[in-house]
Protein 1
Amino acid sequence: MKLEISCKACQEKIRIKSNAISRPELAGIMGDRFSYRCDSCAIQKKYHVNEVVAAESNLVKVVGIVFGLSVIVVTTLFFWNKGYITNLGFILGGGIIFGSTVSSSSSTSHAFNKYRITSYDED
Ligand SMILES: [Zn+2]
């Protein structure tokens, strides 16, 4: 999981260098409001911890899709060589692809994004 904010100056995504796995944990480390310098434009702006967005690294999803596709191909070829066609490969491979995409959206990053810190010091 990676934590990002959109730069208020150039709109680039800035990677937050923290291993926090929840918003309260991140708030505990960085504070509810913190200043952060953009890697792209080097402008420092103030951000609220609620503006941080968690994203799953796409690697998990890509590996799942590639693995699922190879299961489809291998299973189909195997049964093809045996002289008949089956949907088994599509069911298995499709299940793996579905599982890897769904699990990555219902994981810690999803929980992180749902949670909002209640802050009393308004601007
Ligand atoms: Zn920037």
Protein 2
Amino acid sequence: MNKSKVALVACDSYDDARVYSAVTRGLDLVGGVSNFIKHGEKILLKPNVLFGSDPAKCVTTHPSVFKAAGRLLQEAGAQVSCGDSAGFGSCESNMRRAGLKKAADELSIPLADFDEGQEVIHKAALLNKRFIIANGVLASDGIVSLPKLKTHGLMRFTGAIKNQFGCIPGINKGQFHIKMPDPYDFAAMLVDLNTFIRPRLYIMDGIMAMQGNGPRSGSPRKMNVLLFSSDPVALDAVACRIIGLNPEFVPTSKRGEEAGLGTYHYANIEIVGDGVEQFIAGDFEVVRRRPVSSSGGRVMAFLKNQTCAKPIINQTKCTRCGTCAKVCPVEPKAIDWDPDDKVNFPRHHYDRCIRCFCCQELCPEGAITIKNTLLGDIIFR
Ligand code: SF4
Ligand code: SF4
């Protein structure tokens, strides 16, 4: 069996020239740009723009990584476009806030249409056969995915596989949390999405990562590494090794290998470039336990209610903006807030909360954290 190749390249700053040189080296290590694209092809760059914010906050793929990848693709003769569908708001406004619109303009890279999409049927999907995919994705010949190394409430960490969720435009994303509240089903859907879109290459920005309360409200953590691979499962597994997280605890890795998208077993991965040991941060703040599955009948459903982590509001940080209620996908809302109420804070209703953690993910103040239960820590470790 051929091993999946993951290249690691050290890079300790976002200086444009240094990142360009590091990305050039990384691409050479995985076979060169021409291994992935042909002259004249329409290639879409897909950064992580969860919610456009200052690059220093490490929520989004850094503009210098975006620019390096864009330049190299253009030099190889690709017609490059870019985009992402963020948590909410237009692609353009989020790209602008993240500094990615400016970077795209410098290279004359147009924004692709991520605000509207079309229905596609993925016959070979294992779980979810129907998707609405952004027009910009469907109009491209191929995708180069630019994930950011960050923690994630539902999936433990967000990497190469999860990055394609932004290929589903706008509010169409929310329905999947309702349809698939089980994290392993949700991961299987993400894997189906990946086997439909099949990005040709993944370049992960791990120069500055996000630890703790990710993917939006954690703290920046300097990791000094860029990762390259055409196997998203292997790339995520190596990223997990760097942050000291067992890939078995990451539902997208489990389901990705089961679906044949790639491998997370280190014995089947060849790491090239700079040695992995120098990047390992065993004290990286990430939840090191399996997400609780609700499949398996009533016993598991009961266990989930007793053991599953909960979103909690920190009232000292909450500004009562109402974003959490807006993004909560269940009806009636599992977190609600009366806009006329200037005294009380929004409140979670755990009896109807499906633990999708969208409220935690998109709270602009970092006021929502995820609290594990002691019983859950014991059972699902
Ligand atoms: S999104 Fe965050 S800051 Fe806004 S109301 Fe909800 S908890 Fe408070
Ligand atoms: S309250 Fe938060 S975690 Fe619960 S269903 Fe709503 S958005 Fe998801």
